[in-house]
Design a protein that fits this description.
alpha/beta; about 20% strand; 10 strands; 8-stranded mixed beta sheet; Peptidase; globular; Aminopeptidase; single chain; 9 helices; AstE_AspA_cat
């Protein structure tokens, strides 16, 4: 995998960004694709079969984005809730499209068994810019905390709050891409005035478990299902993936709540974050989307069998 050693083009080495640097960064973020045509239109086509609701709106300058959620039509208070989130990092395309594919192709299989709450694109501004942050150079997936600095994160937490303690399983759909190493991690280091330290990109699919409440059998059930669709990332020579020890095949652990990660927002006993690798010559965009949908199905099936 390629890495970058040149200084990031914005800011001064070892000095955190101020308003000038953030404004320069924002000026370099052109709109590259359409949330309306690629996400909202697909969501609308699901309305005849599911309850589609707007749970908030992001207003950034002259641009405004409705935040949409999809619910089971047969919602019943006596059923467990399953939460599926995608697009917390807007550039991670299969997280968004995989969530929508799951709803279209598989959600009906769980009617009457669980209440599904699906948020396919948490960060629509970043989806259009193919970027990790929101326009304030804030990472929504480090912002799921009290007094969140990211409205994307705060809006999702408000949506989930009424069912937070009823969630059986939460799966948060992500990707790890080659641009993590060439753009996003260097930008993070520059923003915070720190040196960039290359960590490498895992070659394949992996999962992030909660180190505070690990569920190894649950994680392996998802890995087993997904490996029928795409390859699982092997550990590097240090026995790690992106600098974290591999605790089981294709699985690392993070302290989800401590890091303010999306998968920490409920008290669900079963939580996982998927990481698809779309830049492999061994995968296609369609396979990546299918891997995400497959992971969702496997996660729900395990949670229902072990609730």
């Amino acid at each position: 995998m390629s890495t970058t050693t040149a200084p990031y083009p914005i800011g001064t080495p070892d000095a955190p960004w101020g308003d000038v640097e953030r404004a320069e960064w924002l000026s370099r973020r052109p709109r590259q694709r359409s949330y309306e045509s690629e996400v909202l239109s697909v969501t609308e086509r699901l309305r005849p079969r599911f309850d589609v609701e707007q749970y908030g709106r992001l207003d950034y300058g002259s641009e405004s984005y409705p935040l949409m959620a999809i619910r089971s039509r047969d919602w019943r208070d006596n059923l467990p809730v399953v939460l599926i989130t995608g697009g917390v990092h807007g550039y991670e395309t299969s997280g968004v499209q995989g969530a929508l594919q799951f709803v279209d192709q598989h959600a009906a299989d769980y009617a009457g068994r669980v209440n599904l709450l699906v948020v396919p694109c948490v960060s629509p501004w970043a989806y259009e810019r193919i970027h990790r942050w929101n326009p304030n150079a804030v990472d929504p997936n480090r912002s799921f905390c009290h007094g969140s600095p990211a409205e994307e994160s705060a809006a999702l937490m408000r949506l989930v709050a009424p069912v937070r303690d009823k969630v059986l399983m939460h799966i948060d759909l992500h990707e790890t891409t080659d641009t993590d190493e060439t753009e996003f991690r260097p930008a993070l280091a520059a923003r915070d005035g720190k040196p960039f330290e290359p960590a490498g990109i895992p070659n394949g699919f992996y999962l992030v478990d909660d180190s505070e409440n690990p569920q190894p059998e649950f994680q392996q059930a998802v890995i087993k299902a997904v490996e029928q669709v795409t390859h699982i990332a092997p550990a590097d020579d240090s026995g790690e993936l992106i600098g974290s020890p591999v605790v089981a095949r294709g699985v690392i652990q993070y302290p989800l709540k401590q890091l303010g990660l999306c998968a920490s927002i409920t008290s669900a006993p079963y939580k996982t974050t998927t990481e698809v690798y779309p830049d492999s010559p061994r995968t296609t965009p369609e396979q990546c989307n299918t891997a995400q949908a497959t992971a969702v199905c496997a996660a729900i099936d395990y949670a229902l069998a072990h609730q």
